[in-house]
Design goal:
InterPro entries: Ammonium/urea_transptr, Ammonium_transpt, Ammonium_transpt_CS, NH4_transpt_AmtB-like_dom. By secondary structure, the protein is an all-alpha fold. It contains 21 helices and 4 strands. Helix 7 (about 195-215) runs antiparallel to helix 15 (about 350-370).
Amino acid sequence: MATPLAYQPSPAAPDWLNKGDNAWQLIAATLVGLQSVPGLVILYGSIVKKKWAVNSAFMALYAFAATLIFWVLVGYRMAFGDKLLPFWGKGAPALGQKYLVRRAKIPETVHFYSNGTEETHMTEPFYPMATLVYFEFMFAAITIVLLAGSVLGRMNIKAWMAFVPLWLLFSYTVGAFSLWGGGFLYHWGVIDYSGGYVIHLSSGIAGFTAAYWVGPRLKTDRERFSPNNILLMLAGAGLLWMGWSGFNGGAPYAANKTASVAVLNTNVCAATSLLMWTCLDVAFFGKPSVIGAVQGMMTGLVCITPGAGLVQTWAAILMGVLSGSIPWFTMMILHKKSALLQKVDDTLAVFHTHAVAGLLGGLLTGLLAEPALCRLVLPVPNTKGTAYGGGAVQLGKQLVGALFVIGWNLVATTAILLAIGKFTPLRMPDEQLMIGDDAAHGEEAYALWGDGERYDATRHAPVFLADDAMQAMQSSGGARGVTIQL
């Protein structure tokens, strides 16, 4: 039987190209992109005080755009290219067509036996390199956008503009290469299925560190920072949740059964965590909180990420229960009792929702990773969680991997911010902080009546009014009390 024309090789569709995998990977990447733009742009712009809506949204938008340019210039190959150091790849552009249209591969992911013979072949998805570069960019971008949540409401925008590319190149690429690109943690067998460590633990620790060096918001803002639009915040949160199917569903680099398990587990864990957080709010505060529900959704999504395609669905429920309770405890109870946590002004509690939840997910993956699922995607054979006879070995590896990510982000983020601080202040001056968006950008989020604009009858009066009525309105300073003779 002849091969259907649509499936015959051609210059644009060589025999190694799987059109289904390529289509899914591009869709998954775009879903992850929608988490940042517009998802987190909307969420940040609405969850903050009105005077910081424009600044907060713009910090996310800028980070997304700047990350893409530096990613293709040098960042991608620092994270997924040839090895320079055990934790870092050789930087080079990903711009030429010869590089981008060939079959994708991650060269350092080939895994060897101790005697030097090949044990696991390198990762070579069935689509072009351009697809992989695009997909991995989305993960890099959302990491920095999440980090921004720690410094909203006071960071100097010029300092942020310098920070984004520097942190991408000197912090993110190290974690990505070490755990995903064929670095020492990858080959040692540390599990990070889709970014619990590379993305969430790193953004939480880096965000907390940045919040320390940038300094706090104004005292009035710290005491009262109510969202300016909770319904719009929910729209951003919804985009974040739905986009996570691409986040974890795209991690196997193929439209396979691991992707299906990961998508289901992701949604189950998020729903469980949201319900758990809400129940705790009701039990301790007497009423459910919408903001709390969003926090619970977030911690569930973060917690399942390092093991989404590697654990059974009953384990995803267990992880959801823990991710909806342990970060709740650290945020609502421990935070109020810790002098350090009180001192550092982490605006959106990224430390709790991402660092704590990401670490929790990584350790739970070491406990609950199912051997048959691990064999489908992991490079190191016989990887399995403690609950399946793996002993304490895998948990130990997960802990060491977490400590490396924590340590590197503490040092790298500190060094970057101290260097930037030599050239421009990290924090806006207090007089700008009193004003907010108008001082930082010359723009405001909402043109609502009564925000300071004086009623000008020559600009706002209907065009059909007679001249004498117009004069009467001008002399009275407005329309109130004026009788118009038609």
